[in-house]
Amino acid sequence: MKNKSLVSINDYSKEEQLAILELAANFEKNPTQKILEDYVIATLFFEPSTRTRLSFESAVSRLGGKIIGFSDASSTSVKKGESLKDTIKTVCNYSDLIVMRHPREGSARFASEVASVPIINAGDGANQHPTQTLLDMYTIKQTQGRLDNLNIAFVGDLKYGRTVHSLVMALCNFNCTFHLVSPFELKLPSSVKIHIKEKNLEYYQYTTMDEILPKVDILYMTRIQKERFSDPIEYEKIKNSYILSNDMLNNTKDNLKILHPLPRVNEIDEDVDDNSKAYYFQQALNGVYVRQALITKILGIK
Ligand code: CP
Predict the structure, then answer these.
(1) Which pTM was predicted?
(2) What kind of fold does domain 9-128+287-298 have according to CATH?
(3) Is residue 50 in contact with ligand 1, taking CB distance under 6 Å?
(4) Sheet holding 177-181: strands in order across?
């Protein structure tokens, strides 16, 4: 994995993904180690973020590394018309690794092709979010004891939800069964479903979530991605399609865990937070350990 960019989750083999999860478990036991003192990591966020940017920065800080970057491109020379290529080539001069989030699909791949340092895709439009996938896999393994042969429900915006796209692709290596719950307009794209079909795995599509709740091991809730809609009226029509409440969890499996990449808007009632099946804040914490593991693997330190 040394010097290997992570743009699509499939850029890393199943074995490489599992090696990151194994190393992340070590960082969970000991997250503060001064092993990045000689390194500068750039975080370039052209789109808003709380968890991804701050957990990357926390991961680097706990390992003694330095961070440069921005959380708002309007304070940079992008505002003056600088191209993505020129921004990336410039930041390569100042850093050993670039973490980048951008609203345009394919932007991270483009950056990896012009960069002289590795690129980590922290989300490119509605395409992929591979580091979220690694922390989701870590969390699923942590809560279920395995990644194989699980029944997983994805609920919400499966069309624009980049975390769903990359997680479905990764779980295709683990013989999972997929329950896909979305409004008709927000179904999982064919470009992702094709990965399920290639592995001869089963998927089922629904527009309501009631019938799947008693069956599943993981309930992966997602936000309807307002920022991806060209027509605000369309968003208003479907924004509250799914709202999970405590009473809906009564007949669910004992091992069920509710995940959500966050941010949440309305799709999980706050009452659910106190339910022992809610696991989304622990999931966000796991982002620190998994990102520590990923960074040190790419830099060739661990
Ligand atoms: N999960 C996630 O990507 O959250 P942020 O948008 O807050 O980074």
Answers:
(1) 0.96
(2) Rossmann fold (3.40.50)
(3) yes
(4) 203-206, 177-181, 151-155, 218-221, 257-259
